[in-house]
Amino acid sequence: MTLHTSIKRNAYYDSVTLMLLSRELQKLEGVEDVLVGMGTDLNLDLAKDLGLASGEFDTLTPNDLFIAAKIDEAQISMKQVEDAFIEQLNKSAESDGDEDYQPPSLRSAVQALPGANMVLVSVPGQFAAAEVEEALDAGLHVMLFSDNVSVEDELRLKQKAVEKGLLMMGPDCGTAIINGKPLCFANAVRRGRIGVVGASGTGTQEVTVQVHKLGEGLSQVIGTGGRDLKEQIGGLMMIQGFESLIADPETDLIVLISKPPAPLVAEKIYQIAKTSPKPVVIDFIGGDRAAIEAVGAIPCISLEDAAQKAVKALHGEAFDDFTGFSLPEDYINCIVDTSVAKLKSDQTELRALFTGGTLADEAMKVLGVHHEIYSNIPLSPEMAIENLPGGRGHICLDLGEDQFTRGRPHPMIDPQTRTEFFESHVDEKTAVILVDVVLGFGSYLDPAGAVADSVREIRQRLSKQGKDVVVIASVCGTDLDSQDLNKSIESLEAAGIIVLPSNAQAVRLTDRVLQRIKKGA
Amino acid sequence: MTYLVEMSKKELNAITLADDLVELLREHPSQTALVHSVYPHAVNLLIREDELITLTSQDDIPPMGLMVNCSTSFTEFLSAGDKVILETDQLTAVNGSFTVDFRDAKVWKARSLLNLDRFSTEDVTQNRHNLIRWLAQQPAEGLLPLLPRLTHLSMSSKPVVDNIYSRYIADDLDAFTTAINTSAWEQASVLADRLIGFGMGSTPSCDDFLAAYMIVLAIADASYPGQHPWVRQFNQTIASKAKSRTTLISANMLRLAADGKTSRSHQQLIQTCLFKNSGQLEYSASQVMRHGATSGGDFLLGLICAFEWVQNTMTDISKEGERAWVENNQPQPVPGI
To answer: Structure pTM?
Structure first.
């Protein structure tokens, strides 16, 4: 082995380049050891320590780059090492070109990508309004992922968007699929003839996933942001999106999804639905069924029901409210029997830990009919989690709410928050755990695996007290999602989790089990 | 016969200028600078023998910097050694290859971290904890394999693969942080000799680490005047040592850090860490991580260690600084140019 040093005077490379180059040089046949660095005293000390120092080091200054290599000259020469360095350097420079260009401003981004007509804004809330304003002024549609934008700014920006005939989806808009391109949190679904305007992220995801499972596809999925249908905003983007889909030749049927809008806003939407030339399915979760029917639109009882009715209406088939299960009733009864049988008499409580707010909301609407459910997003103020009695009770949490995501990622991105809640909120009194598992773009790479791991730990913990627990889940995902729907279901079932094909069905099963426990008690 | 080579002249606009650069241009309205180093999205210009001005086309701006609107690589039209003329309202390449017009640029405050209200150790502690957790999930390049050791935490979630640089410097970094944590600053400034200039790249890893420390110390000194009288001397000592021990680019970074100056993305992260924040920590940290392969991570590690000193030594509490910082950072029109 021979020691060689190559010096490049006043040469400056960032650490990413040097690190990659070091690794590539180390891989060369005949190179035993190599160190690349700037000629500072301490780097030279390191080279000496590694036995890579040579006499040429005396001439180095901190502003010189050195490549010190121990090579087997029978296999490679220092000239070849240097050539490899230059070759890698050129490759690195090429890859540092336009494709890695990170524009410093919206203006330069638009210049770098001529023809772009939509901007996704995701910056801290206090800076977001200015970015959106600039985008709208430039004639660009906007998806605003950021939250913490004031209602006043939202109203002003949406008014401007409407004036210019643009979309301003958001703030806090997490789901959209535009021209087949999923934005932020969205599932991989096939394209088709159903258009969706949604004021709720996971609600929209659940409907699009169910539409895909039923063999149909989506034309456009437009988000509005959660506050859009409140009186202050007046449903500006729901209306804008709705009218866009009416005008869209690729959309044959429209689905609207939201929590119940403010009455005046609902009325505006109903009037558009009344004159819509295309069928309209409306799921204003817990909304006014009679009012929807009165304008000739199709009301729904769940997100899954919305998807089923949309697909059937598109095909010209008759439909009823879907209140049951995909599995036979006998099989469901059997699940309920075996589930309840493994619980002890003091196990009575529900712990519903959701990552999707609308899925949690849908659960509470159904469960709230027969049970008192305490939550951080309660259906009525008296059911706020702070009012949970000392004797305790059922809990349903939306872990994606601000109070749980401050300073940490959303639980759809990082399962850690829910893992911690499994540890802190599931105990010997817990009878049923209900969870959602949301797949798709933006979501954690293996959310089902994370839930399965937590459930195994819970079971191990409870087994020390001779107890078990019933765990019910639904997976919001498709066979096209990168996380793999089937693999996710298998992973959950391997941990003894009962997996239902929709949130609505998982909630109904939970309701049945809780009713049986109550009856038994 | 004369052959004229027609070059397409780049006419760039400055979007933002650092206020310390604006000040310098006012004091020295016309001067020549030399292109010192060129990267695809950044250029360093050398003035007055050892000071650098940075042009950047990325969404961040350093002290003594100007952010320009340029969608092509600087390497396509600039080379080390080129001369440029700096004036109050523009920069012109002597060879005529490009100009940068400053007239519509906004001004960014490079020292706004020194105007913060007092912060609470409670917020810093919580944010430090969250930052450690987030950083533990990032690729362990540069000094990051030392995260568990320097934070005294066991992180079993994934195995840490170290590198020769981090392995070599581990004990020295440990000794340095211990000295700072006990406010043994004279010992720390001696131990810094074993850190300055160590690591890959034009800003070696340990310099990024030290820069974070120096900025946090400068903020603490500004927010709690008189409580840590050694800070200024300590920072100046490190900056002075850096002149001969590290690269020119890095020595400049440390000189600016000694005065509490750092780039906008780093400012934003530090501000986020000092006060209650609304889920912006990961966003701010990821913006910093974008710097080089290791520079961002090395800076973050330094920040985490420096916040340990804050936790150990700071006691006064005030939580009203956030709004003041945001207001200070709103871009303003360039006065007089």
So the answer is: 0.60
